[in-house]
Please model this.
Amino acid sequence: MNIRFYNIILSIERIIYEFNKILLSNKPSTGIFYLYKIGLLSIILPEVRNLKGIENKKKFKHKDNFIHTLEVVDNISRYTNNLWLIWAALLHDIGKSITKKYIPNIGWTFHSHELIGSKMIISVFERLKLPKKKYIKYVKNIIKYSSRPITLISYTATDSSIRRLLFYDDIEDLILMCQSDITTKNYIKKIQYKNNFNLLKLKLKKVIEKDIKKKWVYSYPISGYHLMKIFGINPCKEIGIIKNILKYAILNGIIPNNFEKANLFILEIGKKIL
Model:
């Protein structure tokens, strides 16, 4: 794929090479905003360009999600040089342009924008020829679960819900993404958000300490390969179903997280499914 701009033809590989240098700069928003001003961002990343603007209806208005995105990218760049985490920050709200909805007397909503945005990542990676096999799952998951830590910031969050977060492979990156997503200019709100994340980290620490005493292991005791071997089948959707049932049973305390109990459990489940 080549892009023509002002009679200059550039390969998408060269464009992304230069774009990645912008993302890894001290203040990526400067370069990204310049690309927006000259019209090149609309060609490279229309999903991000479409976030620009504020719509006002009956005294209800939403923030400019494009400007917010630039602030998030700058925030996260202060703490990491992980290029693909910065890409996730850049793309984390692209689902908002599709899910935006006005509800009378309530205002603007963007329900499920994280899920929709994560699904849009496939076309973005394919169009820009980004390394799909290596990083697409990582970027998709950061976006898909970007609100999950926030939902756990409460004194009523259960150990099981906290433990689900601990099973996430890139939990530190996910929490950093959530913290970088705070762009409010209200000092009191900013302090409150900071305290909330400190509370979440404390909860995570306490659950880990409890689980260490119980010899809990943060990985599943049964692999997909083991399932295929004991049931004598090749990779299929049923294997995924059994793994999800096992995951639910462990996370919700139905069975302990050890091989013996898990093996007996999946043998019973396998009889019903296979």
